[in-house]
Amino acid sequence: TFSGIFKERRDNDLVHHSGLITIDLDHIHNTKKVKDLLLADTSLETELLFISPSGKGLKWVVAIDLKMADHTTYFTAICNYLEHNYNLKADRSGKDLSRACFLSYDPDVYINPKYIIQ
Q1: How far does Cα 61 stand from its chain's mean position?
Q2: Strands (DSSP E) found in 30-98
Q3: How does strand 46-51 pair with strand 110-111?
């Protein structure tokens, strides 16, 4: 999970929250266009953005500030923001803090440059 470290992969077993949240966007017809939209949006800091394992969606990992709101509140707010601004519907089942996220091969993955050691 991107959202934290757990004793076991259950919400109640959270040891430390990472300050990251994963948004799952399924059934995207033009993943390149949506990737470009999300990367151009400065409202949220994209940490990682890649095509989902199905090849028909996106996984969007963004930074959140837990001093401002909790994980669930952020999840709801981001989903509402995406729907209102881009008519994108996130998979609401992804709100669970301990939800697993599989990585996939995406030659055009976006990794926030702050993580790249030069």
Answers
A1: 3
A2: 46-51, 58-63
A3: antiparallel
